[in-house]
Amino acid sequence: MATAAASRRHVVAVPYPGRGHINPMLVVCRQLAAADAGLAVTVVVTEEWHALLAAAGVSATLPDRVRLATIPNVIPSEHVRGADGVGFVEAVHSKMGEPVERLLDQLERRPDAVVVDTYLTWGVAAGAARGIPVCSLWTMPATFFLALYHMDRWPTVDGPEGEEGQSCKSLDQYTPFPVLSSVKCSDIKIFRSLALELPMKRVAHVFSNLRKAQCVLFASVYELESGAINGISQVLPCPIYTVGPSIPHMSLEGNSDKIRRENYSDWLDAQPKNSVLYVSFGSYISMSSSQLEEVAMGLHESPVRFFWVARDKATTTTLQQISGDKGLVVPWCDQLKVLSHPSIGGFLSHCGWNSTMEAVFAGVPVLASPIGWDQLVNARLVADEWKIGINLREQRREDGIVGRATISAAVTKLMDLADGDSLEMRRRAEELQEASRSAIQEGGSSWRSLRSFVRYLAEGKLNAVETSQ
Fold first, then answer.
1. What pLDDT digit, counting tens, does each position of 164-218 carry?
2. Are the C-beta atoms of residues 212 and 468 closer than 8 Å to each other?
3. Peptide bond preceding 303 in cis form (omega within 30 of 0)
4. What is the DSSP code string of 314-356?
5. Which enzyme class (predicted)?
6. Which of 249, 220, 259, 264 shows the shortest CA–CA distance to 377?
7. Checking phi first, is residue 58 left (phi over 0); if not, alpha (psi -120 to 50) or beta?
8. Of 264, 413, 419, 258, which is closest to residue 327 (Cα–Cα)?
9. Distance between CA atoms of 202 and 121, rounded to whole angstroms?
10. Are 240 and 267 spatial neighbours (Cβ–Cβ below 8 Å)?
């Protein structure tokens, strides 16, 4: 294996310790190595994440010039962080920075740059203190970045008007600022809730430090979020680069129609084209047991067959019993390959950004069931701006639950290939699929942006002292 010391340039990548952040960071690192033969990348993860990536076979597939380095497990385990999300955020903020800084000081080859997840509040300062240029990677939609960046312009939800003279007359209205066109007042009420008070303070800290970064990379596609990306370029004092979709599309090359060596492949292969609804609610934020039961019963009552990925064997067994022979429930799958299978005709999703981008890349319409954070905005992009799906959150009862009858009706409509609305969503999904795939092809927007960044790095234009503010 080639070492960082043997390479002409060395980049250290520090992802936020969560699957939705580590996966896109690894994709970006692969892209950097592929775009510059003289570049080596060291990715810093906890010992636990090193083991998880090895067990999943990810480590073995990394290019020679992308290697993993570890820090001790100074934060709560990935297996329990969902039980105390706020505590996990605080641990990452207060405990993870010091061992990362020690590792930076001990590396055989001094980094030419550090690519650090935007949510790591100490990341920019750690690089600046060592005179190392810092590039921030934002792994969520640019639209959500812009919304958080303009927190000071959010209208008031309750009480008198704010400094901008704007207040929400209804929680169902979109915010009055064009840059926040995909954010509703009900979303702002959630972001300002007591439960998110500490995380929002950390976010404010992140954005106050961001101006000291030398550039910002976005795991998005310009054609999908041109308005937000143009808006960001006007407010940030540093270059920005869109390099998405930062999903494992490399695994599809030469084999997009078949899934090999998996126990569910025969089942999928036996289903008619576009007849199966793929169901997954991510790996972190939990759906309530009552809502999960409504989803299971709604699927059971619909005429649609489904392929559901649950998180563990116990949940898989329970959901399979409820679902009966209407579908197949498994504890894990290669999501992008499944979404790209010809039998898949729709995706019931929590709308995390990686899942949303994979649905777009596969050209699959989405039934959105967002739970929190950026998922709320992602679901609105899916249903309202891109018009490739239905937002179930808009159909909640007073108790906040989406009932089984509503779910069954929405599933039926999404998967009905004779329904006019469904056909139009599929047409739009095909357009966005083409845009996202073209972006990473030679000459595409993300291809050009990535190579511009690599050239920026190779020419030594990243200068921590000159551009820090």
1. 446 777 888 877 666 666 788 888 888 888 667 777 888 888 888 888 899 999 9
2. yes
3. no
4. HHHHHHHHHHGGGEEEES---HHHHHTSTTEEEEEE---HHHH
5. transferase
6. 220
7. alpha
8. 264
9. 7
10. no
> For residues 451 and 440, is the Cβ–Cβ distance under 8 A?
no
Q: What is the pLDDT of residues 229-287, one digit of tens each?
A: 999 999 999 999 999 999 998 766 654 444 555 678 899 999 999 999 999 998 766 78
Cα separation, 453 vs 13, whole angstroms = 15
* Count of helix runs (H) and strand runs (E) in the chain: 20, 13
Report residue 84 as tokens.
Answer: 């105390």
Distances (CA, A) of 433 to 238, 257, 356: 30, 16, 12
Q: Which two tokens stand for residue 337?
A: 């390959």
SS3 call for 305? strand
CA–CA distance, 211 with 129 (Å, rounded to integer): 15
Residue 229 φ/ψ, nearest 5 degrees: -65, -40
pTM over 0.70: yes
Nearest to 220 by CA among 120, 124, 143: 143
Q: Measured between alpha carbons, how far is 118 from 210 in angstroms, rounded to an integer? A: 8
Mean pLDDT throughout 101-117? 95
Give the Cα separation of 125 and 116 in Å (integer).
11
Of residues 96 and 79, the one with the higher pLDDT is: 96
Contact present, 280 and 346 (Cβ < 8 Å): no
Contact 305, 326 (CB under 8 A): yes
How far is C-alpha 402 from the chain's CA centre? Answer: 24
Q: What is the 8-class DSSP label of residue 381? A: I
β-bridge pairing 344-349 and 113-117: unpaired
Distance CA 25, CA 7 (A): 20
